[in-house]
Amino acid sequence: MTVVTAFAPATVSNLACGFDVLGFPLESAGDVVTARIVASGVRIDDIEGDEGRLPRDARRNTAGVAVQALLDRLGEPRGIALCICKGLPLSSGLGGSAASAVAAVVAADAALGAGSTLEQLILCALDGERIGAGSAHADNVAPCLYGGLVLVRRPNPPDIIRLPVPPGLTAVVVHPALEIETSRARALLGETVPLADAVRQWANLGAFVDGLHRGDFAQMARALEDAIAEPRRASLVPGLSAIKRAAAEAGALGCSLSGSGPSLFALCASRAVALAVERAMLAAVATQIGGASRSYVSPLSARGAHLIESASHAREAGAGRLPE
Amino acid sequence: MTVVTAFAPATVSNLACGFDVLGFPLESAGDVVTARIVASGVRIDDIEGDEGRLPRDARRNTAGVAVQALLDRLGEPRGIALCICKGLPLSSGLGGSAASAVAAVVAADAALGAGSTLEQLILCALDGERIGAGSAHADNVAPCLYGGLVLVRRPNPPDIIRLPVPPGLTAVVVHPALEIETSRARALLGETVPLADAVRQWANLGAFVDGLHRGDFAQMARALEDAIAEPRRASLVPGLSAIKRAAAEAGALGCSLSGSGPSLFALCASRAVALAVERAMLAAVATQIGGASRSYVSPLSARGAHLIESASHAREAGAGRLPE
């Protein structure tokens, strides 16, 4: 029997001009999943930290579906039992379903000794996220798995690009006391967008990528504008413009919704600025929304999902036996 | 009286994933405009190379409108007479109206000794191009004026970014014996686009800009895909897919319409590859379209519009006199 535990970080995605294609992990917040080999099938043994709200049926659980995809891909006759510890609030816009799916496939792959590539694991995790989020764009799953500031040129087959992160660049994330279902936020977007808005978006994304390479914070700030999703989702977060203004006045390069919200991220040129921006955003959120907010100040972490402990035992004699 | 002549290069714009925002000049093809100070107003004294088809009325001529915008901006009481020598075929997709507008404002500004900045000149040229092309996106005017591979983050106020050009990168342009009106090509696009196509476009543009910075030709090749304009305009160029295939088989990184066509551009990793691609594209165009094609092989020229000769004379005494 082999038991392996993996951590997968929270991720900021839909990075303003990088809607559906840009994301990065936070340093410490995330989900922890333990995978244990069982005779066959996928099951969820336990979920902590979800207040009983996530499906225990593996076929409807993001981590369960992801691991089933891995078993199918490997042609693996054995099964996996999962224990999921949610370190992220549900429907927060911080890639919680991606983190569960990624931690589960990383742990399960290690438990099985399969040594799958990141390209293989990402496709399995995407299968899982599709269950959780209603669609899968890989801008949470890819940075969660690979680490770093990631551009998803194409989710399948995966064409994942790690962009340079200028020294000092620091993220602030504030999670107000709201919940937004990803599927509801996506429905606000509609199926088409004005061409003029789309052109503005890709002009900004090109400028943002160029600014990253040259460490040009002023250009990055000008480019950190979402012409597509944020205007259509602004109603989901009361006082969004006031919160953005507070971030800007405190020195943020830009501030927008993380994922489909309600979490907001800001990018800052240094940790010192980020700490001031965090205070300003928390104050604005308290005024505009109230309730208890969580906040994080983090570099754009270079580290993706990884094993945090593993107990590997020789399988007992009588291999087909249920290891329960 | 002061007479100044300027050259402004042909430009490739709508660079596949860079629709409306990316462009670069060719090295030698372009328009030449001579500006001469007159007492007041703007007039077109002569146009060569247009077979009599461009408006001689300065208020309807792209160069005339651009120079009027310059005079207005300067609060200049004197006027300008223009002689325009078209080095580019009309409606070719190579930025002919931008070249005339840019050469005219560069020549007129020098004739007047005004010393306007590029940011000021671009806005005047854009006013002119709006007359010629029905809309103005600056992805011809900006590279024509600034030189280099240019990203237009915003046309007004101008936010123009010169992107790095990896050593060896060479353009092929083939202009088949077709004419396409920019306004007709634009009408094919419609006002809205599917969000999924737009996301694919900005993912590609981000990857292309990253590839330029890292000199990663393989990534640039994957990203040189137009999810927006080319599929909607393909019917304007018979056999487009066969021509693109010929370019790819000869080693091009990518091939698409220049501007709104009918010219096609290909980007290649070296001049040697570009020469082979030029042959392959010309052969395919001969088969698919027939007629006489022009072609160019050029680096992504770093040089924008510039003065090529100027005769500066002290103004005669009796300043208000018509210098005719």
Task: Give the SSE map.
2 copies of one chain form a homodimer.
Chain A: E1 2-15, E2 18-38, E3 42-48, H1 62-74, E4 79-85, H2 96-112, H3 118-133, H4 141-146, E5 149-154, E6 159-163, E7 170-175, H5 182-187, E8 192-194, H6 195-214, H7 217-223, H8 229-233, H9 240-249, E9 254-257, E10 264-268, H10 271-288, E11 294-299, E12 306-312
Parallel strand pairs in A: 3-4
Antiparallel strand pairs in A: 1-2, 1-12, 2-4, 2-5, 5-6, 7-10, 7-11, 9-10
Could you explain the architecture of this structure?
2 copies of one chain form a homodimer. Chain A is α+β, with helices and mostly antiparallel strands and 324 residues long. In chain A, 36% of the residues lie in helices and 28% in strands. Chain A has helices at 62-74, 96-112, 118-133, 141-146, 182-187, 195-214, 217-223, 229-233, 240-249, 271-288; strands at 2-15, 18-38, 42-48, 79-85, 149-154, 159-163, 170-175, 192-194, 254-257, 264-268, 294-299, 306-312. In chain A, the strands form 2 sheets. In chain A, strands 1, 2, 3, 4, 5, 6 and 12 form a 7-stranded mixed sheet that branches. In chain A, strands 9-10-7-11 form a 4-stranded antiparallel sheet. Chain A is globular, with a radius of gyration of 20 Å. The interface between A and B is large, with 40 and 39 residues.
